[in-house]
């Protein structure tokens, strides 16, 4: 009986939901803002067929209620997740500390890059990266011994980082580096440039750019970042049948055209992340990871009633080649990693098989 009532309520919701928009306002929104160049007759005919008819001319279309509880409640007991502020890399039989996050408590206390001697009094020689990753991840406190080139040091560490910089990087060896783009926000291009400039000054020529999980963000900064690697100073473009949404980005500087690039992607690499990956590929980058999300349309909400807004496609992203990206980007080397988390860190970088494959391609030991 409860199941029948639930179905009836759901049917009632959607029935009312269909009537929540004003057809004249919806028609106006489509004619003035749609990426597609449909005529008034085309749109009216689609509207006669209801929601399914409109979705047939715009797959991203949906009606969003402007009132009512639409946001799922978050459990109040959820606690922020903390992390140790370092990253290790396997090197022969040893492990190296290759990254200590600036301004962390451990950094201020003297934790530095160097050779890791032991963790929790355990000899880590020949230990599998995945096993060491789990040892660190499952420890509430670490006893760590390392050598920074000046001597052996012992420290006790607790998890402390709950967030990471929007852009951070580390050197993998004398020839290669890794850079993580957490998101593409305003000023990300500047932070990215500062990171890569410091890497370049060390004579490094191979760069792994991690775009996994990158989707929305600042369109200008995304264009600038890809433009840094473009020999002809070209980046992606935004196109629409409506002039107001078209945009060609002007790239003023391209200081990093000599880098050999590997770009990491996954199914959550969408929109800006996806078009950046394709643009970098057209500038010589090798793509490693999973097929991207095939989501390169820009949408916008328009009020179409007192309590409703319509989500309509207003523009589409195109790489310099103008290739259609509707089917997503298939990597040159397909590698999956089900344990990957965007807002987290792998303590042993080799335990991430996508990064491990990229390092293998670069000949990093």
Instruction: Could you tell me the CATH topology label of the domain at 167-296 and 309-334.
Output: 2-enoyl-CoA Hydratase, Chain A, domain 1
Portion in beta strands: 15-25%
Distance between the termini: 63 Å
Number of strands: 17
Shape: elongated
Structure, briefly:
The chain has 365 residues and is α+β, with helices and mostly antiparallel strands. It is 28% helix and 25% strand. The longest helix has 17 residues, at 2-18.
List its salient traits.
10 helices; 2-enoyl-CoA Hydratase, Chain A, domain 1; 6-stranded mixed beta sheet; Pdz3 Domain; alpha+beta; 28% helix; 6-stranded antiparallel beta sheet; 365 residues; single chain
Write up this protein.
There is one protein chain. The chain is of the alpha+beta class. Among the domains are: about 85-160, Pdz3 Domain; about 165-295 and about 310-335, 2-enoyl-CoA Hydratase, Chain A, domain 1, CATH 3.90.226.10. About 30% of the residues lie in helices and about 25% in strands. The chain is built from 10 helices and 17 strands. Strands 2, 3, 4, 5, 6 and 7 form a 6-stranded antiparallel beta sheet that branches. Helix 3 packs antiparallel against helix 4 (about 50-55), helix 7 (about 190-200) packs parallel to helix 8 (about 220-225) and helix 8 (about 220-225) runs parallel beside helix 9 (about 270-280). About 35% of the residues are buried. The model is unreliable at about 5-20 and about 70-75 (pLDDT under 50).
């Amino acid at each position: 009986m409860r199941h029948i009532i639930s179905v009836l309520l759901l049917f009632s919701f959607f029935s009312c939901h269909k009537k929540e928009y004003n057809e004249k306002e919806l028609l106006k929104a489509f004619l003035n803002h749609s990426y597609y160049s449909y005529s008034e007759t085309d749109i009216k005919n689609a509207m006669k067929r209801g929601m399914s008819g409109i979705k047939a001319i715009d797959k991203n279309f949906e009606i969003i209620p402007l009132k009512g509880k639409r946001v799922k409640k978050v459990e109040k007991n959820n606690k922020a997740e903390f992390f140790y502020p370092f990253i290790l890399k396997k090197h022969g039989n040893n492990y190296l500390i290759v990254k200590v996050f600036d301004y962390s408590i451990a950094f201020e206390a003297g934790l530095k890059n160097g050779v890791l001697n032991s963790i929790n009094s355990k000899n880590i020689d020949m230990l599998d990266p995945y096993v060491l990753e789990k040892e660190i991840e499952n420890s509430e406190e670490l006893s760590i011994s390392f050598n920074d080139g000046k001597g052996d040091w012992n420290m006790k560490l607790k998890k402390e980082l709950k967030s990471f910089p929007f852009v951070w990087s580390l050197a993998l060896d004398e020839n290669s580096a890794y850079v993580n783009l957490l998101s593409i926000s305003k000023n990300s291009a500047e932070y990215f440039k500062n990171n890569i400039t410091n890497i370049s000054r060390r004579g490094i020529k191979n760069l792994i750019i991690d775009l996994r999980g990158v989707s929305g963000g600042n369109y200008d900064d995304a264009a600038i970042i890809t433009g840094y690697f473009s020999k002809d100073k070209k980046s992606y473009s935004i196109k629409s049948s409506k002039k107001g949404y078209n945009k060609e980005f002007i790239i003023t500087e391209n200081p990093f055209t000599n880098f050999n690039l590997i770009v990491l992607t996954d199914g959550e690499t969408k929109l800006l992340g996806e078009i950046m990956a394709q643009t970098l590929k057209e500038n010589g980058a090798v793509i490693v990871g999973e097929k991207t999300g095939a989501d390169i349309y820009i949408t916008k909400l328009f009020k179409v009633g007192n309590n409703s807004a319509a989500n309509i496609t207003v523009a589409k992203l195109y790489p310099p080649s103008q290739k259609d990206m509707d089917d997503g980007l298939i990597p040159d080397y397909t590698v999956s990693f089900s344990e990957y988390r965007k807002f987290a860190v792998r303590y042993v970088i080799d335990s991430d098989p996508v990064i491990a494959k990229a390092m293998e391609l670069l000949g990093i030991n």
